[in-house]
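Q&A log
Question type: sequence-to-structure
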Amino acid sequence: MKRKAALVWATWFGCGLSPAAPGTAGSLGALAAAWAVHAGFAPPVWFYSVLAAALLLPSAWAAGEAARQKGAEDPGLVVIDEVLGQWVALAGAAEFSFLQVAAAFVLFRLFDIFKPWPVRAAERLPGGWGIVADDVAAGAYAAAALWLLRAAAANMVQS
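Response status: OK
Response body:
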């Protein structure tokens, strides 16, 4: 039962089983869940990073367990890391709007793919922690980039 639960969580309810771009499918699955939460009770955007932090431990466990089951260090079907990273990226949005969410998505995917320092270094953590940590770091970079872009735009408007 625990093995199956780990796979369900690690694949974000099957998003990771996408035959093409499972990481992107996981990010989109994260946004679909966030959109449902937003429609239900409209929490502030920082709520999603708190949710990611609260789910970090079970997610690292599930990612590590799925990797052991598949016999791979970071199998492509594990996308819970993209879910957490995408939620962290949302914390940089000014509001939960289509444009802000789309910007968080694009920036997160770019930082996740290109892995600037120390994002790539986080992959070296053992087990599920290495699987999850780099995406959380990429999400933090995306959130910071959103904040900086917003600050630069506000500065340009004031000038």
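Response note: The chain has a mean pLDDT of 95.
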